[in-house]
Amino acid sequence: MKFTAEQIAGILEGVVEGNPQVEVSKLSKIEEGEEGALTFLANPKYTHYIYTTKASIAIVNNTFIPEQDLSCTLIKVEDAYKAFSKLLEYYNQVKLNKSGIEQPSFISDNVNQGDNIYIGAFTYIGNNVTLGNNVKIFPSSYIGDNVTIGDDTVVFSGAKVYSESIIGKNCVINSGAIIGADGFGFAPDENGEYSKVPQIGNVILEDFVDIGAATTIDRATLGSTIIRRGVKLDNQIQIAHNVEIGKNTVIAAQTGVAGSTKIGENCQIGGQVGIVGHITIGNNVKIQAQSGIGRNVKDNEVLQGSPALSYGDFNKSYVYFKNLPKIVKTVNDLEKNNNGNN
């Protein structure tokens, strides 16, 4: 798909300097620009590339004044970085703007379908499913019985949404994600053998939730596992049964949250963090990567380590640990001197 500089300037409310009819069909970094590509300049450290780039169009700030001749057409905007981000979003919307039902696919007779939906080939849609307007379900996906998916939500190829799950509006579920699988519930008997505890709850994703590729969110034993509005989960995260994650919390890859833990709003949790079950983590908490959380956490705490300490205490302790060989040598020398004086 091709766009002219004039069309792009219209989308960004910018001003063209150069050829308004020059066309682009791809995006690139400014240092890797080639003919037919669109790029941008926001960081002053990259200014020298504007004079050597082969990109056909460059988005720049209004304040940019060339000091040499340019081979590219400029689109001047208030904020080049924000404008390019807006353009990426627009491009993504165009790219994902599919509609219709591809075959082969299976759709139960009693599915309630909204307007302008897209269902890719080899997709299964179960009984009593409700699909809102503009829902996009890409090929080879599974939507179980009694699932509700809100307007403008995208389910990418190979994702699985198990029965009874409720997905809000403007959500993104990436490939390989599994929403609503059974929680890890087993009870030992007198012989030490384990029997499965039925998991009869569901998963609720509120609006504007993003779920990364291969992330799993287990259904509740009873009630709901709840991911609140605006939560962003990275790839390969495990969220166990009956967990609740508060609004606008973000969690990086390979983190695991055990059952029935409650995480507050606006938290930032790094990669490979392990969080035990049945605890409460407050609002605005920051947890550094590879930390282990085994206790309740108050609002606004910053933690690191395993078991996690306050961020400041961890750094002080690490300095001591790093210098431990020197400290031990000093102690040994002092003991030798004392023994020699006796």
UniProtKB/TrEMBL annotation:
<keyword id="KW-0808">Transferase</keyword>
<comment type="subunit">
    <text>Homotrimer.</text>
</comment>
<feature type="active site" description="Proton acceptor">
    <location>
        <position position="241"/>
    </location>
</feature>
<comment type="similarity">
    <text>Belongs to the transferase hexapeptide repeat family. LpxD subfamily.</text>
</comment>
<keyword id="KW-0012">Acyltransferase</keyword>
<keyword id="KW-0444">Lipid biosynthesis</keyword>
<dbReference type="InterPro" id="IPR020573">
    <property type="entry name" value="UDP_GlcNAc_AcTrfase_non-rep"/>
</dbReference>
<dbReference type="GO" id="GO:0016410">
    <property type="term" value="F:N-acyltransferase activity"/>
</dbReference>
<dbReference type="InterPro" id="IPR007691">
    <property type="entry name" value="LpxD"/>
</dbReference>
<keyword id="KW-0441">Lipid A biosynthesis</keyword>
<dbReference type="GO" id="GO:0016020">
    <property type="term" value="C:membrane"/>
</dbReference>
<comment type="function">
    <text>Catalyzes the N-acylation of UDP-3-O-acylglucosamine using 3-hydroxyacyl-ACP as the acyl donor. Is involved in the biosynthesis of lipid A, a phosphorylated glycolipid that anchors the lipopolysaccharide to the outer membrane of the cell.</text>
</comment>
<feature type="domain" description="UDP-3-O-[3-hydroxymyristoyl] glucosamine N-acyltransferase non-repeat region">
    <location>
        <begin position="22"/>
        <end position="89"/>
    </location>
</feature>
<protein>
    <recommendedName>
        <fullName>UDP-3-O-acylglucosamine N-acyltransferase</fullName>
        <ecNumber>2.3.1.191</ecNumber>
    </recommendedName>
</protein>
<dbReference type="GO" id="GO:0103118">
    <property type="term" value="F:UDP-3-O-[(3R)-3-hydroxyacyl]-glucosamine N-acyltransferase activity"/>
</dbReference>
<dbReference type="InterPro" id="IPR011004">
    <property type="entry name" value="Trimer_LpxA-like_sf"/>
</dbReference>
<dbReference type="Pfam" id="PF04613">
    <property type="entry name" value="LpxD"/>
</dbReference>
<comment type="pathway">
    <text>Bacterial outer membrane biogenesis; LPS lipid A biosynthesis.</text>
</comment>
<dbReference type="Pfam" id="PF00132">
    <property type="entry name" value="Hexapep"/>
</dbReference>
<keyword id="KW-0677">Repeat</keyword>
<keyword id="KW-0443">Lipid metabolism</keyword>
<dbReference type="GO" id="GO:0009245">
    <property type="term" value="P:lipid A biosynthetic process"/>
</dbReference>
<dbReference type="InterPro" id="IPR001451">
    <property type="entry name" value="Hexapep"/>
</dbReference>
